Amino acid sequence: MAPSANNLQPWEFVIVDDPGTVAEIFPCLLWAGYIAPAGDPPEGERPAAYIVVLLNGRVRSAGGEHDAGAAVQNVLLTAVEEGVGSCWVGSVNRTKAAEILGIPEHCRIDSVIALGYPAE
Question: Can you list the residues of the chain whose pLDDT is less than 50?
């Protein structure tokens, strides 16, 4: 649950936990792009799952980013509470990720939450 303008709740979430699909999504994310590829998580330390955050254009035709941000923050806080590490990624090859996941055209990818267990 999270605050949402007019309580429209335009967000939708796609859970990606199949290892093959997780591996396909990994290169769609730009990890610390300013120091790439050194900022990319190395093999063995890559995310175990993703939550792909969508904005449904049928619910709200424009905007919704603030709504999604509030929902994402709650996901991140809950992950920490459960001992799960997370990284909120906004630099996404949205076209490729949408193709891999079969995202319908009325939805657009807002961001991706990477999940795993922290090494530290």
Answer: none
